[in-house]
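Hi D.,

Good news: the full-assembly prediction came through. Inputs first.
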Amino acid sequence: VSAADPDGLLARTLREESGLLVARLSRRFGDFDLAEEAVQTAVVEALTTWRRTGPPDRPGAWLQVAAERNALDAVRRSSRQQALAARAPAPAEPSDGTDERLPLLFACCHPALAPEARLALTLRAVVGLTTPQIARAFLVNETALAQRIVRAKRKIVTAGISLSVPPPEQLTERLGDVLAVVYVMFNEGFVSSTGATQDRDLAADAVWLAGVVATSLPTEAEAWGLAALLTLQHARAGARFDAEGGLVLLRDQDRTAWDPTALAAGEDLLERAAALRSPGRYQLQAAIAACHASAPSWAETDWLQIVTLYELLRAYDASPVVRLNRAVALSQLGPRQAEVALAEVDDLAGELASYHLFHATRGQLLAGLGRADEADAAHRRALELTTNDAERRLLLTRLHRHPLQDGS
Amino acid sequence: MKYVLMFTARPDLLASVDPARAEEVYGRVYQWFGENAAHLADSGAELHPVTTATTVKSGDAGPVVVDGPFNEAKEVIGGFSILEVADMDAAIAIAKTWPQLELPGVAVEIRPMVEDYSQFE
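Then the structure:
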C-alpha cells in the first residue's frame, strides 16, 4: 500500500469493512436504519481523521469501534430502537459461510424500493460511500439524495423488508435485481470517471462487488457472468481516455495499455460462468468482451463470432441497444454487410431517437460508407444529446475530421 | 408483521374482458382465501362497485358530501384484506398469487399497518 495513495487505502478499507459492519450491527441491534447511520458516521469520521493523521494500524478495527460507539450513542438517545427491535422481523443469522453482506445487498436492491434508491443505498450501506461522494458521482443534489436514502431506509424498516438471502424459488429473480444495480454502478463509474476528479472509483467498486456476489453464490452463472464482464471491461480502463481526458473508442485504443492480469482474471471468471452451462445476458456480454480482449487489433477481431454472440444475446435482452451493437459488429464484416447494418440501425430510429449513441453509431456507419454530409448531421445530433464532457469532445473530433482523409 | 392488501382494478380495462373468463378468475378468488386462511388476520371486505361510492370531503364551510370515489384515478379499490406474515417478502409472495392479477389493470397494493404507536412518541 502506497503512502502516496491514502485515498486508495481509505477506499479499499471502507469498501471491505463497511458492508460487513452494517450487516453485523443490523443483526445486533435489530435496526438496519440505526446500524447504517452508525457506520456512515464512522466512515465520515474515518475520512476526516485518517486524512489528517494517516490511517491507523488496524483500520478495520478502528472503524468497528467507531461504528459501535455511534450505534450505542444512538440507542441511548432514542427509545425507538427497543420498540423497533420488538416488532421487526428477526434478522437472519449467518449460516453456511455465506458472506454477511449478501443479505444486506438483497435488502438494498429489493424490488419494493425505487430503482434509483437501490443504487444509492447499496453504495452507502454495502460499499461504504458517503452521501456527498454519491451525489458527486451522479451529479445530483446532495440534499435530495440524502432524503431519498432516508426514505428508502425507513421503508426497509417500516415495511418489513428483511435482511435475508431469498429462498431458492425467488433467488434467480431477486439476484437479477441485485446484478442490475451492480451493472448500473459500473456503467455510471465507467462513463463519468476521469480519475482525477473522483475520490472513489465507482467502476472499481462495482468490479469488487460483482466478485463478492459471485463468490457468495458460486452456482449462479449470471453472477460469474457479470463479474467476468465488469472485470474485462475494467481491464481496458487505462486506454479509454487520452492525456486530455478525451474518450478513446475501442477501435482506436492502445491495446498495450490494457491490463493483461485483469483480462486473464476476467477470462477465468467467464470460464467459471460457462462451466455452469446456463447462459444469460451478462455471460454473453462477457463473451463478447472476451472476443475483443483477445483480438490483436480492431481489424483482426473475430466479428463473425461477435455477431453470433449478439444474436444469442437478443434472446435474453431484446432492447434496441443490443440490436444497435449487433449492427456495428455486422458492419465490420464487409461493405455489403455495412449497408445492411445501416438499414438495421435506421429501423431503430423511432425507439432510439433521443439516445446520443444511436446518432453517433449512425454517423460512424455513414462515414464508413462515404456519406460525409449525412454523417456530420448525425454526429451533430449526437452532440446535442450527450451530456458527458469526454463524449462531447470525441464527437467534436469526429465532426472536425474529414472522413476520407484518415480513412475512418 | 401486519399488512393491508388493497385490491384495485381498472373498470375501463375490465370491461373488455370476456365475461366467462372474468367469472372463471373470480371463482378462484374464493379458493385463494381458503388457501391463505392461515396468513389472513382479517379477510377484510369485498366492496360494491365504485359507482356506489359516496365521499365526504373537507370544505370551507364544513364537510361536503359528494357522489363518487375520493379521487379521480382510473384505478378503483375493489376490496381489502389484512395479512399477518413474517416480512415483506412473504406478503409479496402471497399478493403475487391473487387470481385477478391475470386480468388487465388489476393491482394489489401492500401497505404495512401501524402496530406500534410508540414509534410516534
